[in-house]
Design a protein that fits this description.
Blueprint lengths: L68 H9 L10 H14 L16 E3 L7 H5 L11 H17 L15 H7 L6 E17 L3 E16 L2 E16 L25 E2 L2 E2 L14 E11 L18 E3 L3 H11 L5 H20 L3 H4 L5 H16 L2 E4 L4 E12 L3 E18 L4 E21 L42 E7 L5
Parallel strand pairs: 1-8
Antiparallel strand pairs: 2-3, 3-4, 4-7, 5-6, 9-11, 10-11, 11-12, 12-13
Helix pairs in contact: 2-7
The structure holds zinc ion (ZN) (2 copies).
The site of one zinc ion (ZN) has 8 residues, from loops.
Length: about 500
């Protein structure tokens, strides 16, 4: 995928999300060529704002000012590149040749010559996402991966429950001003919510409450007076939670239920649970959306055609302090996940993604990525489908893989590697015209990839297309379950799955 000058913001792609909603149906601008994505739509009543939360404003929100959704979406677009089928094999072979050179176990095997030297990345510890992991100090069950799942799920739910009186069910997770703001009596239905990205804006550990500010890019449909309209929106949310709150058990993280007893939300009366009779709102026991603001609304898909030079791929790899030590600890628990084996898994996933991306074939991508990343792919493949184009990255192959970070929490192990790759990269219209990029010139690039796996899993990372739970040939539905044993394999319970892809400019 094409990258553009990506300077303005930190792009972070995410793990998580409850359900993938297939983006189908009529959308604004569908099919015709378009340019730019930064002008704001007007005449829509889909806007909610402002951050004070006490009044609703209709019409273009404009006031967001600091975030231009077209630009932001363009930034996100930078995030992938994928080659076509025929060259899969080439990539695979090259990948394995490289990997086989590193047969011996040990951290030095992550790096081969000629690439930038690694440096200790103290700056990275200051990033907002990293800051959030400090919650583990007071809440040992806290998992970033699960927090992100939860945020995705809550966002999709609050959008979909805006019509009618449905929002009442989410009262435990929404502040009264947010409930008021989101309520829209003219809205008949919201569906097809696909989250393109979630970014951390700020994390604040106050003495009483922790506050996390997030921005989400999403594509959704609203139905008013029987008319369906598709929107590309950017929303800013502030989630807060009391310092005394504790994380949900992993088994309950993927569904929204009573923060105290786990009973279904149907039993809520206001913010009191009808089962345990506890008052469960206000962020006392679980995260609450305290504020929400719609920064931008677009009716047209983001621009996919402008071109930009790579930036940052000559920078040294940012290695988190202590990463190698944590890698050793991981190896002590699971000797099979050695660098060579993990690199082979990365190459395997890389090739599947290249194929799926270039062919707009989400089914090929599904088995190897978490729900949140799958939404991301769904979002962009939908954009490309809408404008009848494909981004093709022929002959993509990994040149090198370096270890950047290893993080373990109560639920997941996460390994971040920087991969260096090269490919031809161009965007082709469905009628065969090259819309941007070059069919001849190869581009070098690097990206940080984070793979996650449940703490309970062990064994050699797989590099063959089989279900990691039962060994049957891969046959994975869009929800991520094996067609044979029905195990949900995309949550990382059985093998390493990709949860984030970050550009050089965004990582750190
Ligand atoms: Zn309850
Ligand atoms: Zn299976």
């Amino acid at each position: 995928m094409r990258r553009r000058g990506l300077k303005r913001t930190h792009v972070a792609l995410f793990v998580g999300a409850l359900s993938f909603t297939t983006a189908v149906g009529a959308r604004p601008g569908g099919g015709q060529a378009y340019r730019g994505g930064s002008s704001r739509s007007s005449g829509s009543s889909s806007h909610y704002s402002p951050s004070s939360g006490s009044s609703r404003s209709y019409g273009p929100s404009g006031g967001g000012g600091d975030v231009d959704s077209g630009l932001v979406l363009e930034l996100l677009l930078l995030c992938f590149r994928y080659p076509p089928l025929g060259l899969l094999v080439v990539g695979g072979v090259v990948g394995f040749v490289i990997l086989n050179r590193r047969r011996t176990r040990g951290l030095s095997d992550w790096s081969v010559g000629g690439m930038p030297a690694r440096v200790e990345a103290t700056t990275r510890t200051t990033s907002a996402r990293r800051e959030l992991t400090r919650l583990v100090e007071s809440d040992p069950g806290f998992s970033l991966v699960l927090f992100e799942d939860f945020a995705y799920a809550l966002y999709a739910e609050l959008e979909m429950k805006r019509p009618g009186g449905e929002l009442q069910r989410l009262a435990a997770f929404l502040s009264p001003p947010v409930m008021e703001l989101l309520h829209d009596p003219k809205l008949e239905r919201v569906d097809g919510v696909v989250i393109g990205a979630m970014r951390y804006v700020a994390v604040d550990h106050g003495s009483e409450r922790t506050a996390v500010t997030l921005e989400l890019e999403a594509n959704l449909s609203e139905v008013r007076a029987g008319v369906v309209q598709r929107f590309y929106v950017c929303d800013r949310l502030v989630l807060t939670r009391a310092r005394t709150a504790r994380s949900r058990p992993p088994g309950r993280k993927r569904k929204l239920d009573c923060p105290n007893c786990g009973a279904p939300l149907e039993g809520m009366r206001g913010t009191t649970c009808g089962y345990c009779r506890q008052e469960v709102g206000g962020g006392r026991l679980d995260w609450q959306v305290e504020r929400i603001e719609r920064l931008t609304t677009e009716q047209r898909p983001p621009d996919i055609l402008s071109d930009a030079a790579e930036s940052g791929n000559q920078l040294p790899t940012l290695v988190a302090p202590g990463a190698e030590q944590r890698m050793s600890q991981l190896l002590a628990r699971d000797p099979a996940s050695d660098p060579a084996a993990l690199s082979a898994r990365v190459a395997f996933v890389f090739n599947a993604l290249q194929f799926g991306w270039s062919n707009r074939d989400l089914a090929r991508i599904r088995p190897f990525v978490t729900d949140g990343l799958f939404q991301y792919f769904g979002y962009w493949i939908d954009v490309y489908t809408t404008v009848r184009a494909r981004n093709i990255t022929e002959n993509a192959r990994i040149l090198n893989i370096e270890l950047a970070d290893v993080v373990a929490d109560a639920v997941y192990d996460a390994v971040t590697v920087r991969l260096f790759a090269v490919s031809v990269d161009y965007t082709l219209s469905d009628d065969g015209k090259v819309l941007s990029g070059s069919r001849e010139r190869e581009r070098h690039y690097s990206e940080y990839w984070t793979l996650v796996r449940g703490r309970g899993a062990q064994g050699r990372p797989r590099t063959e297309p089989v279900c990691p739970a039962c060994g049957a040939p891969l046959d994975i539905g869009m929800a991520g379950n094996c067609g044979y044993c029905h195990a949900r394999i995309v949550s990382g319970e059985f093998d390493w799955v990709l949860s984030r892809i970050e550009q050089d400019e965004a990582y750190g």
